[in-house]
Amino acid sequence: MTPALHHETTFAVECRQVSKRYGQSQALHNLSLSLPQGCSIGILGPNGSGKSTLFRLLMGLTQPDSGHLAVLGRKPSWQTNRHIAYLPDRARWYGGDTVRDAFRYAERLLPGFSRDVALNLADIMEIPLGMKVAGMSRGQEARLMIMVCVARDVPLMILDEPFSGIDLLSRERIIECLIHQMSRREVTMLVSTHELHEAEPLFDHAVFLNRGELLLSGNADDLRAQHGSLERMMRSLYT
Ligand SMILES: Nc1ncnc2c1ncn2[C@@H]1O[C@H](COP(=O)(O)OP(=O)(O)OP(=O)(O)O)[C@@H](O)[C@H]1O
Hints:
Elements: E1 11-22, E2 25-36, E3 40-44, H1 51-58, E4 66-71, H2 78-81, E5 84-87, H3 99-109, H4 115-124, H5 138-150, E6 156-160, H6 168-184, E7 188-192, H7 196-199, E8 205-210, E9 213-219, H8 220-227, H9 230-238
Parallel strand pairs: 3-7, 3-8, 5-6, 6-7
Antiparallel strand pairs: 1-2, 1-4, 8-9
Helix pairs in contact: 4-5
Adenosine-5'-triphosphate is lined by residues 22-23, 25, 27, 45, 47-53, 89.
């Protein structure tokens, strides 16, 4: 377990009027958002709506042009990053020759990483420990990256399109595994995905972005009660 951050906040993430522009492209525009702790949150929206930009801001990988941002009650920094398991989009893992080496490497470098949990996940996700990382298929590599995040005992997980390139059955297995993790410990999970049909049961809360702006943020059960499913809600919001 990583040392606790001392914070009073009840929110995992708070954004106040956050804007971020890349050249001509307004990636986020006046985004104000408070995301609860201890639940699984879908960050949803079409291509280019600002999901990855929001995650990069939360990891301090880029800075907002204006506005205020807090993650786990603090400004994003290397200290807050110790408490976050982040799976970037277009992730690559080169920490060792085999899966077993990758876990050793993760144990040395990533706060809160448990090799025992990772070994158990590798078994569930059918990734042989002796498998060469360099020879993995896209889906196998994606599974390894998810395992490395899930095997960390940290208060916040940020998974940027964790299911892309993963086949349907593996995707369902990973989602089950994430739901199981959520039931076992107090963790907040932010997940962006275009695979809403399969990921729907994972979410307790949903945030819908469009062209860098917030369309809606709400409790998933309330939204399902009003619209039938998050997927249907998404269709009605964007068409
Ligand atoms: N490094 C960058 N340089 C230039 N433009 C960028 C950069 N990063 C993001 N953008 C632009 O900002 C906007 C938001 O991009 P972002 O990657 O945050 O969207 P997204 O919702 O994650 O999209 P996707 O679903 O396609 O992954 C897009 O118009 C994108 O082209």
